[in-house]
Design a protein that fits this description.
Order of helices and strands: EHEHEEHEEEEHH
Largest sheet: 8 strands, mixed
Shape: globular
Radius of gyration: 17 Å
Number of strands: 8
Strand content: 15-25%
Length: 205
């Protein structure tokens, strides 16, 4: 039975989101801050799924615990699907959130609103020592704004407009974002996979 798991991320903002999304599982949730000796996992996969699986597997192996990892890509139709899996380092390996947003806005300069469609795709992976990795996915459709709007969120949130909300992800509360976002959708599925595993273990006990 899983009594604790580790979130395979060193991103503080993402860690806070995931803590909120998984906090009601009744499982002790730890982060990589608790494991300073854990390796830095190179995200060299060609897909978000490959990166998520690699991170979860390596951190599970290093800590001996169930590990949950995710990777998110941003597909912009007018850019042929870029930045895709390279969203976090779109403007360079040391790029800030602002750098990435600014590069995206520059590359879409002159593109009309109706052609600025985009989607976030999150893949979450659950690695339990000695067992096959399980995967969950979430997608959020939207479009890219011509300039950043809103002071909340992180990453591309200020430039990702969700038509149904009439707002960017940076304009809504964290609670609301955690109900509708791509990451929320993926981790809702991941949470159900973890609950199913817990129930199976209890029944088999």
């Amino acid at each position: 039975m899983i009594v604790e798991l580790v979130l395979a991320t060193r991103n503080r903002h993402k860690g806070e989101e995931l803590m909120a999304l998984l906090g009601d599982l009744g499982i002790r949730i730890r982060t990589l801050a608790d494991f300073p000796e854990a390796p830095e996992v190179e995200e060299d996969g060609l897909t978000c799924e490959a990166n998520a699986i690699k991170k979860a597997t390596e951190i599970s192996r290093a800590t001996g615990l169930t590990a949950v990892a995710d990777d998110t890509g941003l597909e912009v139709d007018a850019l042929g699907g870029r930045p895709g899996v390279y969203a976090a380092r779109y403007a360079g390996e040391e790029a800030t959130y602002e750098d990435n947003c600014n590069k995206l806005i520059r590359e879409l300069s002159g593109v009309p609103r109706e052609l600025r469609t985009a989607r976030f795709i999150t893949v979450a992976a659950i690695a339990v020592p000695g067992e096959p990795v399980q995967v969950a996915r979430g997608v959020l459709e939207g479009c890219i704004t011509e300039s950043p709007v809103g002071a909340g969120g992180f990453g591309y949130d200020p430039v990702f407009y969700v038509p149904e909300l009439h707002a960017t992800l940076a304009e809504i509360s964290a609670d609301r974002k955690n109900r509708i976002s791509h990451r929320a959708k993926a981790f809702l599925q991941a949470k159900e996979l973890l609950r199913a595993r817990q129930s199976k273990n209890i029944v088999g006990a």
